[in-house]
Fold this protein.
Amino acid sequence: MERLEVRWHGRGGQGAVTAAVLVAEAAIIDGKYAQAYPEFGAERRGAPVVAYSRFSDSPILTRSPILNPDVVVVLDTSIDKSIYTNGLKEGGTIILNSSKDNSEILSTFSGVKAKIAKVNATKIALDTLGSAIVNTAMVGAFVKMFSVASLDSLNEAILETFSKKVAERNIEAVKRAYGEVEIVN
Amino acid sequence: MEELTKVEWVRLPLSTNYAVAYAAKDADIDIVSAYPITPQTTVVEKLSEFIANGELKAQMIHVESEHSALSAAIGASAMGARAFTATASQGLELMHEVLHIASGLRLPIVMSVAARALSAPISIWGDYTDLMNTRDTSWVVLIAGSAQEAYDSVLQAYKIAEDSRVLLPVMVGYDGFLMSHTYEPVSVLANSGAALRYIPKKVTWATLNPERPITVGAMANPDWYYEIKYQQVEAMKAAYEVVKEADAEYGRTFGRSYGIIEETDTDGSDLNVLTYGGIYGTLLESSEIIRKNGIKAGFARLRLFRPFPYEEVLKLAEKSSALVVLDRAITYGMPIAGPLAREVISVLYSHGINIPVYNFIVGIGQRSFTENDALKVVSASFEMLKRGQKIDESIYWGVRE
């Protein structure tokens, strides 16, 4: 695997940092190299939050911020598009939490040279968790698009992170988003 | 080598803070006293989890300040306990007077420091100003460059601190946030007990015991104070050798060792870059773009700051046309303001080595430092070197004047 650099955008309380960490943990459990870290602001519910993760088959040494990600995962599209598309590599991928039609998404992102995928993570989170904490659904969509970690290891990381009952619901959210994510363009 | 085969490891995704907590657990500490402070807090949170779930039999002493945290560790250590604490930034500053007491009493306490900027203005982000302020406290200071090294260094720290030739407290520093909160793969011992083969629990220092009463922390008059402080000078000298021994024995026991200065491509280079902490990883990943720009740069990372490893610094300087020293702290009022650069220059001067030392101040309050910054810093230094130019003032990289 070539190195993959991912930026996660959400709002405080949606679990963007946990999402970045969970996938990195799963990749490490799989024996790969990964790194995950938050943007390190003072966390406030509702404020825009950024987290980073890197994946590779070889050791990752750098500790510099990811300025040109291969992938951006957007937990909340109410964040201004210019923030999360900033620096995205040409031909990179945007994974959106969206319930919108493909045509509407395409017109919003006309002129953005990126592959776009969408999943209705809010609905999945409400169905499985009973609250709009969309991080694990977005994780499911991400690992479907980029197989940096196995679902088994992801489930293991989730079981380590949450209590059993909550973990099981999150595992369900991952599974559903894994099946439901679709490529828009 | 037979020993090596018996050691089993588990590869876990851990932040450096968690790696430190695993190491303290594997060192079978008896007490941890701490007060929460960003970005250290998750070290002691993890330790309290280990205690709560029975993985570690130790006492967690909750205190009302960092001053008390270290004071409690001192009391416990004076009773013969293997004591641990962790802090950062303002917490380390609040401990400052107690730092001297821990070392003056010759107590082998180990403390982790997630290095962070200081107020005012308030910054929760990383740099090394807090840690560098402890230079003259007579603590042994190790600085790690990865979560794995932080784990290994905490175990080594007890080996060093409790050596009867040393008996000084040891600090293990690492980048606040950029390391403390970054998850990466770390191999920890599968069986905690394995660490105790390397650091058996044996009380090597004078302790408080009602059956053998001694006085600890008494007044020393002018006729003896000086000699007692000179013993610390000698203990620090001894620590220099013990740090090397501890690392070498760790390598023989567990298969990983680091040396005093980690180096890459420093032989036959145009110039060499010296720094400490996590920024070294970014430097290594900048080597390709630097090479593409026609400069052969070597990279070095100092992992022992006190006692200052003058022998290794001299060896590095002797093969360098110039040294670029990157510092993440400021000595205010000094033209050359980087704490590491100042020590390097003093060592070079006293040994008659007259190569250019280009000191750059970077990463203050976690101002980002990327591979591209590394390229620019190295290129600027190389241009100065070609012109035969030296500097008499640090370069404040990227600052808006």
Observations:
- Chain A has a mean pLDDT of 95.
- The first strand of chain A starts at residue 4 and ends at 11.
